[in-house]
Amino acid sequence: MTIPVLMVVDDNPGTLKALDDVLRHRYGHDYLIISEASPGTALGRLRELRAADRPVAVMMAAAAMTAASAAEFLAQARGIQPGAKRVLVVPRGGPAAPSLRVPVPLVRDRQAATPVLRAMALGMIDAYLPAPAAERDEGFHRAVSELLEEWALGAAPALPAVRIVGQERSARAHELRDTLARNSIPYVFHTAGSDAGQSWLQQAGQDGSALPVLVMYTGEVLVDPPNERLAAVFGLASLPAGTVDVAIVGAGPAGLSAAVYAASEGLSTLLLEREAIGGQAGSSSLIRNYLGFPRGISGTGLASRAFEQAWSFGAIPSMAGPVTALQPAADGFTLRLADGGESHARSVLITTGVSYRRLDAPGLDSLLGAGVFYGATSSGTGAFAGEHVFIAGGANSAGQAAVNMARYARQVTIVIRGDSLAVRMSQYLIGEISATANIDVRTGTHIAAAEGTGKLETLTLTNAKTGSSQTVPASALVVLIGAVPYTDWLPAQIGRDEHGFVVTGSDLADGGSPAASWTLPRPPLPLETSLPGVFAAGDVRHGSVKRVASAVGEGSIAATQVTQYLQKHAQIS
Ligand SMILES: Cc1cc2nc3c(=O)[nH]c(=O)nc-3n(C[C@H](O)[C@H](O)[C@H](O)COP(=O)(O)OP(=O)(O)OC[C@H]3O[C@@H](n4cnc5c(N)ncnc54)[C@H](O)[C@@H]3O)c2cc1C
Q: Per-residue pLDDT for 68 more than 70?
């Protein structure tokens, strides 16, 4: 088995040795520790490692380096080893307690901190860490372990639970890879034409005429299975018998948070998800603005922690398929699933979030998954190394996708209909985009057509002002142009706004008094919908703030209101 590399670069021999000692002592068994005294030699070594197909997990550079800026070195190193985590090691500043997480000299000296914070903001580094104390600096090691865990999530796993054999640009293979990645299930993908692919097809007794083929860790072979079948293999597709206190529909941040709080408050809690744990957040490569994660956290990482937390409090997760209908019943509500199954709950929480708006242009639909993607993917970015990727959209999700893609792609072009990114994108992302050499922005432009045989090959871009069109080579188009809520499965009794978002609480009021559709003498609880006992939280809710933290907050509040409803109102409503 190839041992991954942990590289350290520092031109101060004393601090280089100290860092090398600490890392070798703790990680020397599982990682090859390579120390280099000059950034130039280190870049050469990284190229050699890439040529030898040797994985590099973490690259650390000391901020005190004089030969070159450590951050510049790490930015260059990214071009050679795009998957490796990049860490700037900053001075500890004397005998501060090892548990002190913020480096004392940088807190005192804002000017000295500026390059570090800039490197972080521009995505030149993944993290900064105070240099470790000589012995047992658990704060340092916790941070390093987290980085190694994040790296391992995106790297080829040593023990895959699933091997997929398929065509590189097949839409279904892409969907399966994305679903597995977003559910933190370790998998390896082999193209059908590769030696490994052929070998696995042979072992599975398949001739490759039907793809993708999945070889499970149990030895079971599945040919293009529906997602529910895949969930069943991992024990995630069963439904509880009887009536639960609350059924939560949708396991994004709002649903996961509600499941944690509802289950921890003692409610029997069913969490229904149709696709992947984590919702939209699960497709975000780095969430930097979620409280408590100063160095950011990947959406998949956050979702898998939350999922485990909900499960450990007793919530029952089920990925038996999408919920297709909700009906009032004698003991509460009946939820119907796409596969014909049903579940019963005394109350329901809708946390189904939103889906991306579709681009309407000839050729796009037929190339879906074969170069045209909606939403950022967790697994797909590395597949476009050296290619020209286009991103349609001008909001933060488009900006984040562009910055992430630029780590791998040769060129990233953002296409927006408006005149400026400033209208819908955060300033820090605009700064990051303008500082990234291989991202360009085409304003006042829309995508008029997509063409390609089996995979995307060209896009036609039309300038709104001049009307002129240009057909350009393109390997991928990621569409991030806004969202519509998943609410078409809800009954008419649940009121929605003109865009389909679920209306709750005081927003149901019509001129100060409850709307005509509200039939009870009590007013609706703040997150209750027009159907008493059914609640909504997160992006799907009318007026919600579209953020991870807001969805998590609403999820926890909704759980409390569900408890209140079950204690006070369920019997008399
Ligand atoms: C690429 C990207 C990057 C982002 N980055 C950030 C960021 O850095 N910071 C930030 O604060 N916000 C970010 N956001 C926004 C944030 O992710 C969302 O606001 C948040 O995920 C909303 O959570 P939610 O639980 O309400 O809905 P969602 O995350 O949309 O989850 C809804 C879930 O419901 C499921 N579902 C839908 N219909 C059904 C059905 N009928 N049956 C069963 N299940 C169903 C879906 O599959 C999904 O898993 C980002 C969004 C994207 C797309």
A: no
